[in-house]
Amino acid sequence: MTAMKKCLPIFYLLLFFDSSAQVPFNWDFGGSLGITSYQGDLDALKVNAGFREIHFSAAGYFRRNLSNNFAVRFNMLAGKLAGDDKNFTEPEWRPLRGIYFESKLLEFTVLSEYYPLGMYPSGVKNLRARRVVSPYVLVGAGWAFVDPMVDWNNNDLSNPELVAKDKSAKTKRAHIVTPVGVGLRFLLKDHSTFSLEAALRPTYSDYLDGVSFVGNPDKPDWFFTAQIGFSYPFDKNKTKNKPIAKKDEKKEPPPPKNRDLFADSDKDGVLDTDDDCPTVPGLRSLRGCPDRDGDGIADGNDKCPDEPGLAEFAGCPDTDDDGVPDKDDKCPDEPGLAAYRGCPPPDRDGDGIADGDDRCPDAPGPVELGGCPDRDGDGIPDKDDKCPDVAGIAEQKGCPALPPPDKAVYFRSSQDTWYRTSDETLDEIVETLKKDPSLKAQISGHTADASDDPSGDVSQRRAKKIYDYLLSKGIAADRLKYQGFGSTRPAEGDILSKDPLLNQQLQRRVEVHFIRQ
Predict the structure, then answer these.
(1) What is the DSSP string of 330-363?
(2) What's the confidence (pLDDT) of residue 300?
């Protein structure tokens, strides 16, 4: 409840937010269809990643559009949650334990939506059309109501005391939920939208599935939703458009004074009434104005009246045809760029790339690398290459690729027979060695403890069995080495868990370590 109380002031603030930048519609209503996927005590996510229990869901909502970037949604979602041990094959005790639960789900939440690009184009007053695509993020809080029905399977693998503790636990049907997600809204017609949305929904409770002490009581349950929705706007904003200011009307010019309609003051054959230069003799083709350089541009409009030029340069010439008129060109006989006042750009290293565009102006290099050299020819310029004299890959910043990560194959207790779930791992090992001939493999066999190795050679036989399998798949013997280590090198790190049975199983393994030649 503490988390919910902290979130409520935020929602009240958004709800009464003063929308100075109004949008065309105050409210939307809509609905969506999608899926729910449970994650909790009956989901072995570390061993088997992926969603195993997917069920349909539906939602309905009202959305209050506060501004072009913010909205608040009042959301109701209904669906189903379920989880089953039998969906998992590792470790072996999980499908044998076989606990199952299912529950109806009803969720009421208040969700805040933030649109970083806005729901409408720049400027939100008097808007007429939405964006075609509007991405958003959402965060919210509310309650999820569940009533889990648990099938304990009455087996011997579950601790009876812990089962009794879970069965007698006083649990609530309502759980706080804080959805966090992302979405996209697409314009359909007018202002209605089609949406895609995905969200994680933590619940801060370990009894969403009715199981806690038998599973993992330290981690709360949660679930995931993905929705496809439709919304339609209503309650249109009544904003008054400002009247468009009228342009000033052009004043009619005063009527000309009476004059001789047949006068030709400069005697150039163009009557004063048609002559733009009535006191200077000129050409009839230029309405009576002179053109000293004969380039067809009247002297009054010619910036270079004594040199024939081009109309696009107001009568000035461009000898080197580089788009910079000679009067402004510092290199009038050599084509250049306007940025360099008509001169060619500098190129200190002589690689044909101007210094301004050259990432390495003092070292010649190819155009595709921005003018930077690449001594080892791996496509990564030396300035970004941590191994400039050895060909490498971009992921390693120009250094050679690292060997692939180690692989592990798991075996049955006291046997040299691996679990069928490791077949896929063996296929990956074979494919890795075949694709990269520069790789070698060191094969090490391990046991859980002395009870797992009654003959004293189980780890050696396990390693030899993987060695023989790789030989049978065409991997050369000189690329493989194997050795058994018994229980002297137990597995460590993230692979372990708080489950002692699972940890014991993880020790019965053969590890394949890749080495690059």
Answers:
(1) SSTTS--BGGGTTBPPP-TT-SSS-TTT-SSTTS
(2) 84
Tell me, what amino acid is at 398? G
Identity at 56, one-letter amino acid code: F
pLDDT band (50, 70, 90) for residue 495:
low
Question: How many C-beta atoms surround the C-beta of residue 164 within 10 A?
Answer: 12
CB atoms within 10 A of CB 44: 19
What is the 8-class DSSP label of residue 41? T
CA pair distance 106, 36, nearest whole angstrom: 12
Q: To the nearest 10°, report the CA torsion of 124, 127, 131, 137.
A: 40
> Strand 221-236 relative to strand 193-205: parallel, antiparallel, unpaired?
antiparallel
Secondary structure of residue 205 in the 3-state scheme? strand
Are 107 and 77 in contact by the 8 Å Cβ rule? The answer is yes
Comparison of pLDDT for 352 and 122, the residue scoring more = 352
Q: What does the mean pLDDT of the chain come to? A: 82
Q: Evaluate if residue 63 carries a pLDDT over 50.
A: yes
Distance in angstroms (rounded) separating the CA atoms of residues 376 and 385: 9
Which residues fall within 8 angstroms of residue 311, CB to CB, at 6 or more apart? 296, 297
* pTM of the predicted protein model: 0.45
For 50, 298, 339, the CA distances from 277, given in Å and listed in that order, are 87, 10, 38
pLDDT tens, 433-462? 998 888 899 999 999 887 888 887 899 999
Are 148 and 94 in contact by the 8 Å Cβ rule? The answer is no
What percent of the chain shows pLDDT beyond 70? 85
Pair of tokens at residue 377? 């020819």
Please give the Cα distance from 283 to 299 (Å, whole number): 11
Which domains, from first to last, does the chain contain? 2-236 (2.40.160.20), 272-344 (no CATH), 361-401 (no CATH), 407-516 (3.30.1330.60)
What is the distance, to the nearest Å, from the Cα of residue 186 to the centroid of all Cα atoms in its chain?
18
Please calculate the CA angle 4-7-8 and round it to the nearest 5 degrees.
85
Closest CA to 150 of 178, 134, 169, 135: 169
**Residues forming beta bridges with residue 186, ordered by sequence position:** 133, 194
3-state secondary structure 276-323: CCCCCCCEHHHCCECCCCCCCCCHHHCCCCCCCCEHHHCCECCCCCCC
Q: Are 56 and 11 in contact (CB under 8 A)?
A: no
